[in-house]
Amino acid sequence: MMKQHWFPVLLFCICCAGVWHSCQQVRDARREQEVADRNDQQPAGADTLWHGAGVEDLPDDAQVRYGHDLVANTSAYLGPRGSVAHISNGMNCQNCHLQAGTVPFGNNYGKVYATYPLYRARNNGIQDIYDRVNDCLQRSLNGQPLDSSTKEMQAIYAYIKWLGKDVPKGTVPGGTSIMKLAYLDRPASPAAGKAVYAATCQRCHGSDGQGQLNPDHNGYAYPPLWGPHSFNDGAGLYRISNMAGFVYNNMPFGTDYQHPQLSEATAWDVAAFVNSQPRPHYNQQNDWQMRERKPLDFPFGPYADPYTERQHKYGPFKPIQVFYASNKNKTP
Ligand code: HEC
Ligand code: HEC
Which of 72, 92, 198, 233 has its CA at a distance of 20 to 30 angstroms from the CA of residue 325? Predict the structure, then answer.
């Protein structure tokens, strides 16, 4: 009996092991591909990433120092109680460009001086550094632009130039954009994100998302995430991929890209929740005039594809990605 049966049983086992092994190989290959795709923007290893010079390294140059201070304490100069002008919402550039734009994957300024002026599809034109700073003033700080001749704009420019002085022209060092997280297979969920918010964000940003002013009331200890004093819906963080990537690597405050505390899915969900809340409106009708160049997660139509504004806001993004890949009518 035993003798008759052992061979087919052995054969069966070998086959199973073979199938399992090749499945494993396919899975490993897919994982490697995913990692490789992401590493296009995320060079492995901390050494290759750009780290900006800290406050202690600021040169003995009054203009650069003033520029640094304008980025770190924008509101004290340009906010509702600002000492120079009242042209912004009370937030600081540094609330989103962490440590005055020096942190890897912290939305830093490392590639700015090396890459501007450049063509930007959002504005369908060439933008210089002054234009780009004014974009953030009008959208992220929900305020008014500064003339390029002002002492303040000249100082911000000088600071950004100084920060990026060692980056060769035209090159983009690692860690100088917000990290692109892999798309989920489902829509990001504001409902799931609400629970994440209550558990991980609320203690600083408040149950109403309005943040907390500092003791001098000329800036925030914890900046607002939505509501009348936050960034408007024309701002970069209103795109869920930017919000998710920023939060994943930098929040709760104190986290960095080497120690993310949220899972990627959790970061997408909390980003969905924050961006489902009310905030000031920006007239963005002139943005992305070439519809086929709109980012997948730009939440305002019209689009060059059949998907809804809701799907463009929360996902799932993979079907939209496949649509453009197969239509070949979108320039990267
Ligand atoms: C509410 C958040 C927020 C605030 C506040 C903010 N920004 Fe930005 N800023 C962004 C985002 C998001 C981007 C786009 C990042 C991306 O697309 O990778 C950006 C991009 C930039 C860039 C271009 C960076 C690059 O690598 O191309 C510059 C320069 C800039 N901001 C300057 C400023 C200045 C100066 C201030 C203050 C006057 C400011 N920002 C305030 C969110 C903000
Ligand atoms: C320990 C306090 C703390 C916690 C917890 C925290 N944050 Fe923040 N957050 C900050 C501070 C402080 C800043 C501004 C950084 C600066 O100015 O240096 C900030 C900035 C931000 C910004 C950019 C500025 C703005 O107002 O839009 C976003 C977005 C943000 N946090 C989202 C979150 C989310 C989402 C969570 C929960 C996952 C979270 N934060 C948890 C303290 C915190």
Answer: 233
